TrEMBL record, chain A:
Membrane topology label: Multi-pass membrane protein
Alphabetized InterPro entries for the sequence: CPA3_antiporter_subunitC, NUOK/Mnh_C1-like
Cellular component terms (Gene Ontology): plasma membrane
Top-level taxon of the source organism: Bacteria
Keyword annotations: Cell membrane, Membrane, Transmembrane, Transmembrane helix
Protein location: Cell membrane
Segments traversing the membrane: 6-21, 28-46, 75-96
Keyword Thylakoid: no
Family: Belongs to the CPA3 antiporters (TC 2.A.63) subunit C family.
Pfam family of the protein (one): Oxidored_q2
Name the record gives this protein: Na+/H+ antiporter subunit C
From TrEMBL, chain B:
Boundaries of every NADH:quinone oxidoreductase/Mrp antiporter transmembrane domain copy: 149-442
Name of the protein in its database record: Na+/H+ antiporter subunit D
NCBIfam families assigned to the protein according to its UniProt record, in alphabetical order: PRK12663.1 (NF009306)
Entry's transmembrane regions: 24-43, 50-70, 90-118, 130-147, 153-171, 183-208, 228-254, 266-289, 295-317, 324-345, 351-370, 391-409, 429-452, 472-491
GO BP term, pick one: ATP synthesis coupled electron transport
Organism domain of life: Bacteria
InterPro entries per UniProt: CPA3_Na-H_Antiporter_D, NADH_UbQ_OxRdtase, ND/Mrp_TM
Family assignment from sequence similarity: Belongs to the CPA3 antiporters (TC 2.A.63) subunit D family.
Organism listed in the record: Aliirhizobium smilacinae
Keywords: Cell membrane, Membrane, Transmembrane, Transmembrane helix
GO terms for cellular component: plasma membrane
A GO term, aspect molecular function: NADH dehydrogenase (ubiquinone) activity
Topology class, membrane: Multi-pass membrane protein
Main location: membrane
Amino acid sequence: MEVLFVALIGLFFTAAVYLMLSKFTIRILLGIVLLGNGVNLLLFTAGRITREVPPIIPADTSTLAAGAANPLPQALILTAIVISFSFFAFLLVLTWRAFEELGTDSTDEMRLAEPLDEPLPPMGY
Amino acid sequence: MASSFASIDLAAAMVTTAPALSDWLVILPTALMILTGATLMMIRKSVRLHAVIAITALALLVVLDALLLWQVSTRGPVSMTMGGWLPPFGISFTADIFGAVMALAAAIAALLAAIYSLRDIDASGLRHGFFAFLMLLMAGVSGAFLTGDIFNLYVWFEVLLISSFGLLILGSEPKQIEGALKYAILNLIGTTLFLITVGYLYAIFGTLNMADIARKAGSIRGMTEDAAPLMTLTALFVLAFCMKAAAFPVNFWLPASYHTPRITVSALFGGLLTKVGIYALIRVTIMLLPVEREALSLVIATSAVLTMILGALGALAQNDLRRMVGYVVIVGIGNMLAGVAIGSSVAVSGAILYALHSIVTMTALYLVLGEAGRLTGTFELSRLGGLWGRAPWFSAGSLALVLAASGLPPFSGLWPKIMLLKASLDIGAWWLAAAILVSAFLVTLALARVFLLAYWRPAPGGEGEAATATDWRTALPIGALATLVLVFGLYPEPLLALSQAAADGLADPSAYIRSVFPGGLVP
């Protein structure tokens, strides 16, 4: 089971890196979404994968049943999902504004803050 | 039902006694900033109140951090675990000298920058929540310095990142949106890398509490068959934190964005944010994974040299003052990385001292150049001039900060540079020492040229219409920061002792571990 998940995570990361290497902002954003989901799967796999034993202590005992699911990765993933979702929402709006203001979605043409023809500082007094 | 619960021994999992009153100090800085930030959002229409509330809260933050530092330096690390769960199950906040002194320096820089912002941030900036974002930024920064849990550290990174986005685009100029887009995407990838590493760390250690990791690292390293991939882990941590700290080759987001926002925001970013990355790097590589850091030291040192030299060359090539300071920030990061690469006691305390110096000086340098730009109406070196005649006192303060940033006596930049030089010569790394000296020389050239052109040279286009003179809102922060830089340059003993104690606490974390696990070092 773990091997399957690891292969899946590798696939997510590969696709994410490929998309993020693009110079168009929308593809970069899609890459970031894939990367975020890949990380969530990774956290899930890192914390032991088991089936159908909830991490709840029965009424008459004081310890967890053997092979119970690990609740911590789920808490971590929940945090990571909330953060990556809100960041993605912000980035989408930012990209849209950038497209409106700059008239391009190609990072090569975003040269307003770092102009190519900026003069050198004065060479003499 | 009640009787079946009564038989469970809660003391095995929960903290049953209330924490001592003084322990609350470790959580108060972060809590204060979050509460103030939330309050400012609730009263976002009454912008007149924002500045008063925010600056009072920041002054209180300085007091709290100073008390915390005093407490930590007299009685050892302080720890508090959330929710009453026994560590490592609850999230611990643990302050040692390193964390407390960084938090104090950051709070002072933020307070002075907030006073400067009274003049710099206009009504529209206030309406869009400048002070609310500033409070949340400081919540993230304080949380990152004081937390004792590595996943929690990731959360604080994200808190300060999302508030920095808000500050960066204040004003909504096309330039800012472009800078923010590059900053946001690259920093988000950096923190995602950090999260990936935290996932691996949890898979290897089964814990996220830093004190717990520190005490387990030895036994996990010792497992000979089925060796744990600690090298992979450390390499990923170094990459993720170098990206946050803006070390070469993952630093191109900094010169692309730091010159676009309002000058107060640039000052806060240049002073605080990269130093959080350095803090995390030192905390993880020096305290948690020292053996693996040793193996990677050549890689870190190479990155440090390239960061210093290329940053200094970048500073020399800039015509825009704000972009030039961005490169000066990067040179400082290279110096601190050199300390991490060497890893000896002198080197680490040198890096910590450099970080403290850099928080104060970089904030001040941005504020000074912002004021110079306001007085002359331009940030371009080719058009600046005549400041000496126009504002002599301001020019004197600027000279102090320019010399401090170059690392010249009698200002605070000298001492960390000397410590780092000594540490690199001690291990025979003459090339590292040479890089520190050459980059300091190039930065001196770049900054001295600013002083020559902007201050001494008569204004190229004649005296333009006189801008409004410096008043207390800008003079107080610049004067206070210049005084700090001078005082700690002339009388560095207290800071030297503090950074030495901080480095000792990192090299031997047993006191840190004891504050989280009072029972002892053995699990």
